[in-house]
Write a structure and sequence with these properties.
Pnp Oxidase, Chain A, globular, 137 residues, alpha+beta
């Protein structure tokens, strides 16, 4: 597994800047997800891996196998209206965490393609959320 940088916020700021000026790094399924801070009301942008499941666009709140949910996930639970930047495309979406059998089936498919998510899940007692980003019209 890749080692986390010492200053993840600085790393993410640089990644976001590079994404917006040069596009996603070659060979990486990366998008920018902007949520609204649940306490501050400020816009917060997070770079993250995405997965396609058929026509559905998914992000995984694994938090690299940490005990707590990532802040972006906590923010979208409070306000599911998000903004997505993927490639040269931007759109508003509603974040919809998967539940029940849908979560189990989609997470199993994700793990089959990206086994490191199984390792993340094995380190925590929480169920790692999978979130569908549904474009709004």
């Amino acid at each position: 597994m890749a080692e986390m940088p010492d200053d993840i916020l600085a790393f993410n700021r640089k990644l976001i800047e590079d994404f917006r000026t040069q596009g996603a790094p070659e060979g990486r399924q990366l998008l920018l997800l902007t949520t609204t801070g649940r306490r501050t009301g400020q816009k917060r942008t997070s770079p993250m891996m995405y997965v396609r499941d058929g026509d559905r666009l998914m992000v995984i709140a694994s938090n690299n196998g940490a005990d707590g949910h990532p802040m972006w996930y906590r923010n979208l639970l409070a306000d599911p209206r998000v903004h997505v930047e993927i490639g040269n495309t931007e759109f508003d979406a509603t974040a919809a965490p998967l539940v029940g059998d849908d979560h189990a089936q989609v997470f199993a498919r994700i793990v089959a393609s990206y086994p490191f998510f199984a390792e993340h899940q094995s380190r925590v007692s929480r169920e790692i959320p999978v979130v569908e980003l549904v474009p709004t019209t």
